[in-house]
Amino acid sequence: MDFDLNESQKILQSSLKKFCDSKIRPAAEEIDRKDEFPEWVWPSISELGLMGITIPEEFGGAGAEVLSAVVVMEELSKVCPALSLSWMAHSLLCAHNLFMHANPAQRKKYLPDLCSGKKLGALGLTEPGSGSDAVSIKTTAKKKGDRYLLNGTKTFITNGPVADVIVLYAKTDKDAGAKGITAFIIEKGFKGFSTGKRIEKMGHRGSPTGELILEDCEVPAENVLVGENQGITVMMDGLDVERTVIAAGGIGCTQAALDYCIQYAREREQFGKPIGSFQFIQGKIADMYAQLEAARLLVYKAAVIAGGSERGGRGTEINRLAAAAALLSGELSEQAGLQAIQIFGGYGYTLEYPVNRILRDAKLYTIGAGTSEVRRIIIARELLKI
Questions:
Q1: pLDDT grade, residue 100 (50/70/90)?
Q2: For the chain, which terminal residue's Cβ has fewer other Cβ atoms within 10 angstroms, N or C?
Q3: Do residues 369 and 303 make contact, with C-beta atoms less than 8 angstroms apart?
Q4: In the chain, how many domains are there?
Q5: pTM value?
Q6: 190 pLDDT exceeds 80?
Q7: Please, where are the H alpha helices in 268-312?
Q8: Is residue 294 part of a domain?
């Protein structure tokens, strides 16, 4: 059992850290305050070859494993979780899903522009009445000649206001439950497609979130992924990878909280000595470190198995491992944010210090890609087989 990243992953991690420290960190506060990315962000990410991290080189991607995507997610999240969230929605939820399930013509048409960053991607799953219960979506799709007419509304869609290409789910058989879902490739220029309001959030500010509106949206039949009523396969495969990669966001946030706390505990003095000399503070930092190391190993293991599962290995083990990784890292990052504010005291409660952002950003990791409660249900069902 090898606990080290391979050489290419170490190079990726090192180069990305330098980029984030020099380019993203100085802009992170402004991104949060203005709730928008500067124009140079996506071209810079594209130049690093990250937009199609797991897509083969023949389509313009980097051809890397899911673990490499986890490394990217972790490094970006240490500095700007909003950027990591939008990057994940593009590169994993859209581009990776397309590669794994698209036919050759679909791959050739959409992947090169997504990998180059010419077009931005998103995933259209959540609806006003369908969140964790993903298969209860109400958006409908009816075939009419050589196209489908889609009607419904999607909400909380990361990159929704700006996405060019969207992997979107709709019901083609309303009475068949999960077996009546179809996955479609949507372009923002399709007739009947529009975006609704942009949603303002407490955290991950900068990452655009909004509504997608489908009013007799005309989608060519050739834009069906896998086949009619086969969308549940696309959805479940995508959720396993999503939970694994989003778990790395929680790891990045926790690492940032730990780094800030160590620095502050060394510099802040009370009663004539650094607060790091007090055992209460030492205990908080030690616990944060121990839990972080354990969570990171679980996330990395899930990433390795997620890659193997896509090649036909390890069966359904990834279902519970991905849920466990997201559960542990998400709740840890939230707790780390709270502990960071406690260690910083009154300064931590102000908007002047960055630890407030960690807590606001971390909360998403107990909600997105299924809530903590749903993750526990997935784990229990897998173990109990009931």
A1: very high
A2: N
A3: no
A4: 3
A5: 0.95
A6: yes
A7: 279-310
A8: yes
